[in-house]
Amino acid sequence: MIDILDQQILEALTSNARTPFKDIAEQCGVSRAAIHQRVEKLFQRGVIANAGFQVNPQSLGYDTCTFIGVNFTEASKAEAVEEAMKAIPEVVECHNTTGAYGLLLRVYCRNNADLARILSIMSKIDGLSRTETLISLCMNFQRALPLDLCEPSETRRRRTPKAMPDDNIDC
After folding, report:
1. What is the side-by-side strand order in the sheet with 64-72?
2. In 3-state terms, what secondary structure has residue 96?
3. Quick one: how far is CA 106 from the chain centroid?
């Protein structure tokens, strides 16, 4: 679990990953070294998954975001289909799912013609039986998981929920 200092650090970093450690240290009332050590431990424990920058696909000309559900010809082909998806650079996420699809992909394309090209590539993958494509018209919001969900449920019940900052994106 995370303690209060970890939670303060994570809140600062999830609201702005570029916040200098000295600023976080001042906010938390501890040294920069303590913040650095805590962040390293959060990385080692897998609490912080990465510290990279998120690139806006639209700024690079990828105007179409799609979600593609994938079904297999047979369950034994699942791993091979997943491996084949890794070879398509526009596939940025691949999830094994329950329900209607074996895989759910998030794919960025330049336009509908580019999407058709990618779907054509996918149709040739051995073991893939069919796809269903959902085009995202816009992303209404994206946010980090609220950190108070990491607390034991008894503690959460006693607290009022905090408003989460989110990135509203105009459509």
Report:
1. 91-96, 103-109, 64-72, 128-136
2. strand
3. 10
- Identify the residue whose tokens are 């962040």: 39
Q: Which domain holds residue 125?
A: 57-136
Residue of 78, 57, 94 lying closest to 128 (CA atoms): 78
How buried is 139 (Cβ within 10 angstroms: 0-12 exposed, 13-18 middle, 19+ buried)? exposed
Cα separation of the two ends of the chain: 38
Q: What CATH code is carried by the domain that includes residue 20?
A: 1.10.10.10
67/44 same-domain check: no
Higher pLDDT, 115 or 146: 115
- Asked whether the beta carbons of 165 and 15 are under 8 A apart, the reply is yes
Tell me the angle at which helices 32-44 and 4-15 cross, rounded to the nearest 10 degrees: 90
Task: Give residue 159's pLDDT.
Answer: 42
Please give the tally of structural domains in the chain. 2
